[in-house]
Input
Amino acid sequence: MKFSTEQERQTFNRIVKALPLIIHDKCDGYDELYGYKLIPGDEEDGDKTYYNEEVAHGLIYKLCKAYQFQYDEIVQHVISILKWRREFNPLSCAFMEVHDPELQHVGILTQYPKHDANKKVVTWNLYGQLMKKKHLFQDVQKFLRYRIGLMERGLRLLDFTSEDNDYMTQVHDYKGVSMWKMDSEIKKCSKMTISIFQNYYPELLYAKYFVNVPKVLSWVYDVVMTFVDARTRKKFVVLNEGKKLGDHLPDCPSQSYGGHDKTHDLLAQNIELVKPTEYGLFILEKRNDETVE
Ligand code: HEM
Output
């Protein structure tokens, strides 16, 4: 953790100290973030062993950084993030729910341990393949639960104790999108996804590549960009040709993306099995038991 000023360090320490009470009073005791426990448990809690201080502090540091070490703002966002997680149950999206196979086929997770810092975990969205499958966007909640599930599984591959691997990289492949009118349902799903990521997943994106974007569709980029905040925009790179991606992500498949891997295509690189953290599993089981009762 790097603090630029003594004041930043003090804000971080203040948040760490205040968090148990904030969580108790304002978040109904919900203390899970991306599968990890943010605060140590009480003696009476059965869940004490799930707390890992290094990970918890890594996550709290990220939250402080996201809101420029402004104490009140951090507190306000922590409350809204934890309340949202308690209600939306993103862990269930990632590890319990079964999503439409047509959606699942376009969401890929890859891991490249030799890549530069924070380009090691890559989430791929092959949205171009959905161009003629507009029915998949009709039910916004269904789409969101799929997309959030993919995000959470990607986060599971990060290491919040390492500065080299605590952000993710994302790719949107628009291959197949040619002349195209901005469909209102796709627009709605995109807008809501962007808003959820901005509000509840801060300080997690390192870079985002948009590949196979036909020049005639640059206007779509301009439209969607109006939903995106300035800090996130700076992380975007548009590549008209898919094969240029290899210059940025060298271990990606040679086929379609111009990387060094000539043996595996993207599907072969896909990491299908991602397990929840122990605490994530504990929370999922607890919620499941409550529903059954
Ligand atoms: C974001 C879908 C076409 C640019 C998104 C998102 C979705 C989506 C669901 C939400 C963010 C995410 O899932 O990570 C689609 C579909 C398209 C399409 C289904 C057509 C079949 C385009 C085109 C462009 C574009 C042609 C032009 C470059 C963007 C941008 C974002 C975005 C800039 C914001 C990304 C972010 O904030 O993370 N799109 N899109 N989209 N899309 Fe598209």
Q: What stands out?
A: Residues 95-269 form a domain with the Phosphatidylinositol Transfer Protein Sec14p fold (CATH 3.40.525.10). The chain has two domains: 6-88, 95-269. The mean pLDDT is 93. The longest strand covers residues 205-211.
